[in-house]
Each structure stands twice: as structure tokens, then as C-alpha cells.
Design a protein that fits this description.
Blueprint (H helix, E strand, L loop, with lengths): L2 E6 L7 H12 L3 E6 L14 E7 L1 H14 L2 E6 L13 H9 L5 E9 L10 E6 L6 E7 L2 E7 L1 E6 L6 H4 L12 E6 L9 E3 L5 E5 L4 E6 L2 E7 L4 E15 L7 H9 L9
Amino acid sequence: MKNILIISSKKYTKLKNYTDFVSLIKSKKLEFHILFVEDVEQYDNYLNKDTLVVSFGGDGTALKAMKISWTYDLLFMPLGTGRVGYLVNKSENIEQILDEWIEGKSHINNRKAIIQDNNLKSPAFNEIVLIKNSPTRILDIVFKTHDQTVKLRADGIIISTSLGSTAYNYSAGGPIVQNSLNSIIITPISPFSKFPRSIVLDQKSKIQIEIKKKQNYAIQFDGVVESEVESDKDNKLDYTLSEKSLQIIGTDNSPRLDLFLNQILNPFNKDLSC
């Protein structure tokens, strides 16, 4: 039975576009459940193979909902309310998108995740970041791909998806890449040695990052610290784009440069919020 799981925050429940969306679901006589981001561990009881996971909020909320959709192979639809949201939509045709989903005619966009050491349980939809823990130290990094090796000294390194190209990658000087390309973007953080601002690789590329011994650093998945490392030996980590895809409806493949740049240039303009 088709049903909808909404992942949101309590602060959004009084917004008109939130209440309008809930009213639309009710008018379609669809079963739905609402979980707040503080309670996302309790979602299991509300899911079946026909569940549509909807995030209602900013990019942080979307990333939490993406993980649920990924884990259970469910369709995902991001709706936005936050001030800056590149992952989410301020869609004007939500009813059409819902009707297509009900009829089994959804237009699906597939998005790959970055995975570390082939671990599908910890996908990163924006980026994985290796970054120093000490403000006075610098990381010695060896970067390998396509049988080529580059040595790098920097505060850290970002391994980003195309979807995440407007997140930390962009802040560190990396390029904006169209979502549909499913590429991997490698961007150093404050490099000390000479290094291109970024390297863009195709989706089949395999990357190995080696951090030399006796260095203290953290590994972040979509902004969340997964581990902190201080090792007496060199540490080698492998990164690839997943073969598995996150299936998203209600989005297109356009770069959305106007939306993104307007949000950056006019961060306090409420009319641009999503």
C-alpha cells in the first residue's frame, strides 16, 4: 500500500507550504506519517516497499531522509523550506508529481553516492572529507587514481559527488558540476603544495587516499564525523561512486545556477528561500 513518510522539523509545521502539502496528501486519501529530525531512529515501523520518503526542510534534513531512502531502496522527494537549499525543491507542481507517483509513472533521477572501502552502509551523497584535527598541523596526503600518484600537503581533502559540488567543495574553491554527470570531484582544503584547485573524474574512477603515519585527522561523511584517526602506520582508504543509486523524484538535471548563486549573493532575501 502506497504511503508517505515525511521527515521534517517542528519549526516548519506552521509554514503555509507545509500545511498545504499535508492537506494535499489528505485530499489524495494517502496514508502518511510525520517524523521530526530528532526522532529519525524510529522510522522503521512506517516503511514498506511502496513508501515515498519526503524531506521537508533544508539540505541537512534532505541528507537524513536520503539515508533512509537509500537503506530501504525507496523513492525520495526533497521539498525545501530552508534559506539555502541546493538539494531541495520549491516545486510548483507537487500535485502532478504526487499523481504520477500514485499512478506508478514517476520520472526518476538516479544519484550515486561516494563510498569508502566498498561500505554501502555509510554512503555520502554530498562528500567525504579527510581533514586535520590540529590547527597547527598540515596533512601529508598521497592521492592515487588511474595509475597516477600525486603527493599533496594540505589541511585536508574533499571527495565530492556532483550533487555535493555546491556544498563544501564549492566553499573550498571547487567547481559546480551538473547533477546528471555523476562525477567525482577532488578538491584540496588550503593546499600548501602546488595542486590544481580541483580534479573532476568520471563515475568509474577509483581513488586511493593515503595519509602518512603519526597524523591526527577526522573523516566526515556529509558533515558528520564518522571517525577520528591517529595511527602509527600509513592509512590507505579507497573511494568510488556506488553502483547503487538513490532514486529521486520531483527534480531535474539542470544545474540550477540561478537559484544557487542568488542564494549565495542574496542570503537574506526571504523570497529566495526554499
